[in-house]
Design goal:
By secondary structure, the protein is of the alpha+beta class. The chain contains 13 helices and 16 strands. The strands form five sheets. A five-stranded antiparallel sheet has the order 1-3-5-4-2, with helices on both faces. Strands 6-7-8 form a three-stranded antiparallel sheet. Strands 11-12-13 form a three-stranded antiparallel sheet.
Length: about 400
């Protein structure tokens, strides 16, 4: 299981987020407590009532400007059900010092991994702020205790998992460990791994180099082609523009990057895009792909150049618009005629003749639609260009 604490919020927007999931059928409210008289004998409390009560509760301490506590507890796949996750979440929150505070727990079923969201206030029963010192470290220590895991045992399991992946460089192995929550440092001829502020263990670089040389299993060449095809296919539906993501963890975790397309591919196909950027920069300079289903790590350049990936959705729109126009509005030698492609034949068949005026009306309407779409994408593209020029200047 993984317990992640999000950045504190000035408002209880997490309630709205989870209630939307509930309405969409992607989640359920599985637990609420400590909401006073509004909850007596009721199961149909509205989002508005929850938020108003949390604001009133938190308003007892005006010094706390960001009273929302929002966290998620998740497991690998479906190995732990939502009821068990809820009970573990309640135990973690109790041991962190959140007993007696209004709390909401929502289950989500829209990803491959079961998970629950916890929303509460950082204002305690006594009106003071709940102690948040080393909160993330304490939460993970509690989680390890619940799972009966010793830190060293967990570390050995994670190293074993990472070694099962196909990787071609030591930095790729380090990246796999970092995705499991470890900080990796180089000390002389070995890698040292840290978690929750404690040293977990190390591994000599020579061992990893031998492992790289011994790896007989190579990802099938077809797998790269499949990934390329998936990227091209879904770039038509999800924006590929790479965006800076604000630090969402209540930690010192570095800023990361994402796109709508990379989010979808990770959720649907286990393809995790990891973008790299220089310290202090708002744009990525490279990326890797962790293929969790095939158990392999690919350099991004093996799949697609970064600048192409970043603008792929715009290019796809242009190509689709041009091909659509060519397909549906052609000018044969004997005058303007509209074509309709039959599903049973590769050759177009003339279905009807239309007047030039009628055809032009359709063409103009089509051009208006595609021009508007171009403008939307161009505005986003120009914003990215201005942001990059500004970063280069400074």
């Amino acid at each position: 299981m993984i317990f992640k604490i999000f950045t504190p919020g000035a408002t209880f927007h997490a309630v709205d987020y989870n209630e939307k999931k509930h309405k969409q059928g992607a989640g359920d409210l599985v637990h609420f407590d400590n909401f006073g008289s509004i909850a007596l004998g009721r199961t149909d409390i509205s989002k508005k009532e929850f938020v108003e009560y949390l604001n009133k509760w938190s308003g007892r301490n005006k010094k706390i400007k960001q009273p929302q506590f929002h966290a998620v507890l998740s497991c690998r796949g479906k190995e732990i059900n939502h009821e068990q996750l809820k009970e573990s979440a309640l135990e973690i929150m109790k041991d962190l010092g959140y007993s007696g505070i209004p709390i909401l727990i929502y289950s989500h079923n829209d990803t491959d991994n079961n998970h629950v969201h916890i929303v509460t206030s950082r204002v305690g029963v006594n009106g003071k702020k709940v102690n948040h010192t080393f909160e993330r470290k304490r939460a993970n220590a509690i989680l390890n205790r619940i799972q009966g895991l010793e830190p060293k045992q967990e570390f050995n399991q994670n190293v074993s998992t990472a070694l099962q992946y196909h990787f071609t460089t030591i930095p790729q192995f380090s990246m796999l460990m970092e995705k499991m929550g470890y900080t990796v440092a180089t000390k002389e001829d070995q890698l040292q791994f840290y978690k929750h502020g404690h040293e977990m263990g190390g591994m000599k670089k020579d061992i990893l180099l031998e492992r790289i040389q011994e790896q007989q299993h190579q990802p099938a060449p077809e797998r790269k082609k499949q990934i390329v095809a998936l990227v091209h296919k879904y770039a038509k539906l999800y924006d590929s523009a790479i965006q800076k993501e604000d630090n969402i963890a209540y930690t010192t975790k570095a800023t990361c990057f994402r796109s709508d397309l990379s989010d979808f591919l990770k959720q649907s196909f286990g393809l995790e895009f990891v973008f790299f950027a220089a310290k202090g920069k708002d744009t990525a300079y490279g990326y890797s792909i962790i293929d969790n289903k095939a158990g392999a790590v690919f350099k991004g350049s093996e799949i697609m150049k970064l600048d192409i990936l970043d603008n792929l959705s715009v290019q796809k729109l242009n190509q689709e618009g041009i091909s659509y126009f060519k397909k549906d509005y052609e000018q044969p030698a004997d005058g303007f005629k509209a074509y309709e492609h039959e599903t049973t034949s590769q050759e177009p068949s003339i279905t009807k003749e239309v007047s030039i005026d009628h055809l032009l009306e359709n063409v103009i309407a089509f051009i208006d639609d595609i021009t508007y779409a171009y403008q939307q994408h161009d505005e986003a593209y120009q914003k990215r260009r201005r942001r990059r020029r500004r970063n280069d200047f400074f």
